[in-house]
Every structure is written in structure tokens, then in C-alpha cells.
Amino acid sequence: MTSTTGPAVTRPARRRTSAPLRLTVAEARLYLREPAVLFFTIILPLGLALVLGNFLPGMREPDPLMNGQRAVDTQLPVMMITLAAMTSAFTIVPGVLALYRERGVLRRMSVTPVPPALVLAVQLLLNVTISLLATLLMIAAVVLAFDSRPPAAPLWFAVSFLAGVVALFAIGLLLAAVVPGSRAAGGAGSVVMFPLLFLAGMWIPREHMPDGLRVASDISPGGAFGQALRDAWAGAAPQPLHLAVLLGWTLVAGLLAARLFRWE
């Protein structure tokens, strides 16, 4: 009796154990088959950093308002890192999850041993990995192309990056929860992303913003994320306000996403 029941118990256990890995591999293959995804999250930010850093006047000149730093030292690469992370969080994740909901993928998975929540986890894992890769490539690019130095406080930089991407992807999951369909996901993501990029300092560096706009930047996820990265890159600890803002956005958006998310 032991010999007949033993394999029947262990085989499903092995299947359950390998299911997350199989799903991750399958989703990664689908992810890599979309050249637009890698273009907008890695190639475009890198290309913009190199083009703007080489050809935009003043980018390689010390700025007194930035404590004598050049824009290519922290401002430019951090904005491109923010762009890559927001693109993944606000357009790719909501679009994929909305499409899966429309096609009934999440509903069908609810009757299989693989829980549909695993799809969310895998999508987040893939997109955070791509954001991390884009960040590492950006650091290498500005060091090699502009003779900038890498982040002077790497541990604080890692903490800031983690806090920022968690906040951004929590907002992305909230978008995925409320958008009516995959066609609306891209538009909704852009509506959220571009104002947050502006507040982060994409077009006007925070040092050049009027006081009221800088306050709005401080309490926005984009502004808090970007400034925390810049502080750590320059060798200082991020301001507690910015870390608290990122934590607050994570909690609020994450709780709302969990409450509002629809599987079908």
C-alpha cells in the first residue's frame, strides 16, 4: 500500500512546486517576443541619455544650483531610470493584465492548480528585473560615456530603488485593477505617467522649480523616487520625507489594488 500511494502523493507535489517556475519561463518568453517592450524600457532611455548628454547644451557643464554637479552626473541618468520604471509599471503591467482578463486567462487559471495571483507575481518579477537591468546599464553608460561616477552610496541607492519601484508598481497594479480593458490601459498609463515624470524633474530639474511646484514634487511618487536616487548617487542618505512618501504610496495604492482587482 505504501508503494502504490507514495508516488501519487509526491508527483502532484512536484507539479505544484514546478508550476511557478514553468509559468515564469512561459511569461518570460512571451515578454521577450515583444521587441517594443525592451525598446521602451531599455533601449529608448539609454539612447535618450546618450543623445541628450552629448548634444543638449549645458548638460555637461557644472550647475551651481546642483552643487556644481553636471546634469549627466545624476539628473539625466536618474530621469531615464525613472522613465524606464514608470513605463513598465504604468503601461506594460496594466496592459498585460487587462488583456489577460479580457481573454479569460485569469478566470481559467482559477480552476487550475496554479492560482491566478501567481500571474501578478510573475509579471511584477519580470518587470522589476527589467527595471533593474535598465538601471545597471544606465549607470554603466554614464560612467563610460560621460566620465561620471557610479552611485557614491550604493546601499542607499539600492534602498531608494527598491522603495521607488515598489511604489510605482503598486500604482501600476491599481491601474490594472480599474482600467476597463487593454485598449484603455495604455492611455490611462500615459495620463498618470507624464504628470509624474514632470514632477520628478524630467523637463524642469527640481532645483529650478518654484517652491510650490517643488512641494508637489516632494509628495509625488515620481519626485520622491527621483530625488532619493539622486541623493544616494551623490553620496547622501535619502531624505526621510521621500522614503515616507514612497511607503505611503505603496500602502495606499497596494491596498486599493487588492480591494478593486477583478479576475474576470
From TrEMBL:
Gene Ontology cellular component annotations, sorted alphabetically: ATP-binding cassette (ABC) transporter complex
Annotated Pfam families: ABC2_membrane (PF01061)
Keywords: Antibiotic resistance, Cell membrane, Membrane, Transmembrane, Transmembrane helix, Transport
Keyword Membrane: yes
Subcellular localization: Cell membrane; Membrane
Residue ranges annotated for the ABC transmembrane type-2 domain, each copy included: 36-264
Gene Ontology annotations of biological process type: response to antibiotic
Membrane topology: Multi-pass membrane protein
Principal location class: membrane
GO-annotated molecular function: ABC-type transporter activity
Membrane-traversing stretches: 36-56, 76-100, 120-143, 155-177, 184-204, 241-261
Similarity annotation: Belongs to the ABC-2 integral membrane protein family.
PANTHER family found in the cross-reference section: DOXORUBICIN RESISTANCE ABC TRANSPORTER PERMEASE PROTEIN DRRC-RELATED, TRANSPORT PERMEASE PROTEIN
Protein name as catalogued: Transport permease protein
Taxonomic source organism: Sphaerisporangium rufum
Lineage of producing organism: Bacteria, Bacillati, Actinomycetota, Actinomycetes, Streptosporangiales
